[in-house]
Design brief:
Blueprint lengths: L2 H14 L15 E2 L4 E2 L6 E2 L3 E5 L4 E9 L5 H16 L1 E3 L14 E3 H5 L12 E5 L4 H14 L1 H4 L2 E4 L9 E4 L6 E5 H7 L7 E2 L8 H5 L5 H25 L15 E4 L2 E4 L9 H31 L33 H9 L12 H9 L7 H10 L8
Parallel strand pairs: 5-8, 8-11
Antiparallel strand pairs: 1-4, 2-3, 4-5, 6-7, 9-10, 11-12, 13-14
Helix pairs in contact: 1-6, 2-4
Length: 397
């Protein structure tokens, strides 16, 4: 490591182990190791973090540190995180006697878990801290953004979701094969210390303290909490909606939303609406309306019978012009002034194909008598009219 790089690493280490009296300090010089070197599978390539920091007392078993002086391209910096993931994927044989009975593939463990026993309570691989320096604030911010975009495959994890109607496509990320990356500037680190709000966790907005930044965003637990909140709200909304469906008569609130409308002609599919009735009250209301309808119909019928009784009778049967009381063909309304037969006689005439009813023409004697006084015949005007409309020749009475 050249002198300038060594100075930068020492600066980062000093910022991370600020004495206890300063803001945000943690750890001692023994918490640090530099010039560490790890072989990648195959033994030809190496990963050389600028520093390895251990602070198990605060829940950080190991933290790889990369110091970027802004002299390397963002692509080369991003490639380091891909190399870290390849390194952390490496597994070695576990010599734990408790695993002796297992298959060889089940007796392996990630090498870093043996090197830094933990406890490792967070999902994914050990975190890597990127500390940038050597440029202005805007340039350093842009540099962190560029590295984040280029290294997204290494730190982003995999997106999972459950197809269901009530989550709007929401899901979570799994970080079992991801390298948590936190980034800051050397200047912020020196000012606030590692426990201050200086760290940007890739994939999460804002600056956070070290321990908060190491917590992965969009986890399954966070999704479950959001889903539980959605389901709780849906239940509350459903209860509120069901209250609007309270029976208009008895006030009973249904437990489930009805999908049927109860009608006199049977059930017709329909979603229950506000101001509706429960089934019992609907039956009572239907019965009340039916009784009212029948009473009104009977009243109309009695009125029609009384009116038809005052009219001239049926020409053919001499019964009521409205028909026999209680018969199927009985008129339900007052007969018109031109009606000559009751409904039963009209029906018989049609069935026997007797043709149009034509009343007998007045005789000469009746015509002469009509000049002296008004005839008592109730059908006189109709007989005179028929005589004009239907001449005597060919008429069938």
């Amino acid at each position: 490591m050249d002198h300038l790089q060594q100075h930068r690493v020492q600066g980062s280490a000093q910022a991370l182990r600020t004495p206890s009296g300063a803001a945000g300090g943690v750890g001692t010089v023994r918490s640090w190791s530099t010039e560490a070197e790890f072989l990648l599978p195959g033994g030809r390539r190496k990963v050389r973090p600028d520093g390895v920091w251990q602070a198990p007392e605060i829940g950080v078993p190991v933290l790889m540190v990369e110091v970027d002086r802004s002299t390397m391209s963002p692509e080369r910096v991003a490639a380091k995180f891909t190399a870290y993931r390849e390194l952390f994927r490496t597994k070695v044989r576990d010599s734990d006697p408790a695993l002796a009975d297992r298959e060889p593939a089940d007796r392996t463990v990630h090498w870093w878990r043996r090197t830094w026993p933990g406890p490792h309570s967070r999902a994914g691989y050990p975190p890597v801290a990127l500390v940038v320096t050597g440029a202005g604030p805007v340039a350093l911010a842009n540099r962190q953004d560029a590295v984040a975009d280029l290294a997204g495959d290494a730190w982003g994890g995999s997106w999972w979701t459950i197809t269901r109607h009530d989550n709007d496509g929401d899901g979570w990320r799994e970080y079992d094969d991801a390298v948590p990356v936190i980034a800051t500037t050397l200047e912020l680190l020196a000012e606030h210390g590692p426990l201050g709000p200086v760290w940007w966790r890739y994939g999460r907005p804002g600056r956070h303290s070290l321990l908060d930044a190491l917590e992965s965003p969009d986890t399954r637990q966070a999704y479950d909490e959001r889903q539980a909140a959605r389901e709780k709200k849906a239940r509350q909304d459903h209860r509120e909606w069901m209250r609007t469906l309270a029976c208009a008569d008895c006030g009973n609130v249904p437990k489930e939303e009805s999908t049927w409308e109860y009608g006199p002609d049977g059930k017709e599919q329909w979603t229950r609406r506000p101001d509706g009735r429960c089934w019992d009250c609907h039956q009572k209301e239907h019965q009340r309306r039916e009784e009212k309808r029948k009473a009104e119909a009977q009243a109309r019928l009695e009125t029609a019978r009384a009116a038809n009784a005052q009219l001239r009778p049926c020409w053919t049967c001499r019964g009521s012009i409205g028909g026999k009381a209680g018969s199927r063909l009985e008129l339900k309304e007052k007969a018109g002034p031109d009606r000559l037969e009751c409904p039963r006689c009209v029906s018989d005439r049609e069935e026997k194909e007797l043709g149009l009813l034509v009343l007998p023409a007045p005789t000469r004697r009746e015509l002469l008598a009509a000049r002296v006084s008004a005839p008592a015949d109730q059908w006189w005007e109709d007989r005179v009219l028929h005589a004009k409309l239907y001449p005597a020749r060919g008429r069938r009475v």
